Hints:
5 helices
Amino acid sequence: MVEKGNTIPGSSTWLAFYPFHAPRESEPHYALFRASRKLLIASGIGCWRCGDHDYLEAHHCIVEFALLNGISIEKIQKDFPEIDDTESLMAWASGPTNLEILCRDCHRGALGVHTMPFPLWEAQRWAKDDIQFLRVKPNA
């Protein structure tokens, strides 16, 4: 067991802004998303973070789907030159480049990517067996 280190209590309250978007199922690239998810799950890699193979979901790992209507084509194109208009952004976001497979807990659970600070969440994949970078604080 690791005996030295710092435990820093933390809590934050913030407001997130999500630009308006139509329901995911009505979006024209939803079929591509479903096909990409199916392909990635079929590869057998399991959850990117913990390796589990149960209750797998696809996570938009670079740009969350709900944020796409707030993304500048000019800015994202600097990192992804293949994106040159809204159509190519939507297709890219629904394809395998912007998706990673996570189990339900690592995706939406109390210590999932949508709730933990990202640097701690990502590093947990490679943590030593006796290290857990973030824990759920018990009710006081």
